[in-house]
Specification:
Blueprint: H1 3-17, H2 30-39, H3 45-58, H4 62-66, H5 70-77, H6 83-101, H7 109-112, H8 120-131, H9 140-149, H10 158-168, H11 174-187, H12 206-215
Helix pairs in contact: 2-3, 2-8, 5-6, 9-11
């Protein structure tokens, strides 16, 4: 099977079984999504969703957040991983959005990555989710699933994974393919013991063919 054929099978499978895949972070606007994504680094979406309602009530927009002090914001983030850094990042992000972007969340990767706490992955999430730009955010799930299935070959970094995926995924499908791969990794192709028996991609999955099938 060629890589092109493998991609075609995987994309067709997800189109049939998860046509409406989307982020599990709860948000109402770009500001809320950016806050949630910054908080989600090395933290579960479930925990973030438990935390953000109180933040958004206290700080309903980027202007309100820009006026927060560390001591005021920190208690809302205490239960999130790396709360000290994320508190500083959120305040710094809000101030820069107000000062440099007139209070509007930037809509390009190049602009977003200038904000505190925003790396390439976060910028790709914002631009793909909000604006459906063909940007592939690579987190641990996307990195793992892509390598296991065989969508990527010897990709050593998230950027290499991103570049290889973009070679074969049609631009109009990139924004949803990001969610397909994340959700597959979160619920089926889990890190320690992938649920291969429940997976509809066994037929084309290199990991299943090379490891699991030989154990049976």
């Amino acid at each position: 099977m060629t890589k092109k054929e493998r991609f075609a099978f995987v994309l067709h499978y997800f189109e049939e079984h998860a046509p409406n895949a989307e982020t599990e972070l709860i948000y109402d606007n770009p500001y809320q999504l950016l806050v949630a994504v910054i908080l989600s680094a090395q933290c579960t979406d479930k925990r973030v969703n438990m935390t953000t309602p109180a933040i958004f009530e206290k700080y309903p927009d980027v202007y309100a957040l820009s006026k927060a002090t560390f001591d005021e914001l920190f208690p809302y983030i205490r239960s999130i991983s790396y709360p000290n850094n994320k508190t500083r990042h959120l305040i710094g992000m809000a101030n820069m959005v107000v000062d440099n972007f007139n209070g509007e969340i930037p809509a390009t990767v190049a602009e977003l990555i200038t904000l505190p706490g925003v790396g390439r992955k976060t910028a790709n999430v914002i631009t793909s989710v909000v604006h459906q730009q063909p940007n592939m955010a690579v987190d641990t799930h996307v990195f793992r699933v892509s390598a296991r299935i065989g969508l990527t070959t010897n990709a050593k970094t998230p950027l290499q994974t991103e570049q290889q995926l973009l070679q074969y995924i049609p631009k109009e499908k990139v924004h949803i393919a990001h969610h397909w791969l994340i959700l597959h990794g979160r619920y089926i192709c889990v890190a320690r013991t992938p649920k291969c028996g429940e997976c509809g991609l066994r037929k084309v999955c290199k990991y299943y063919q090379q490891v699991i099938s030989k154990q049976q």
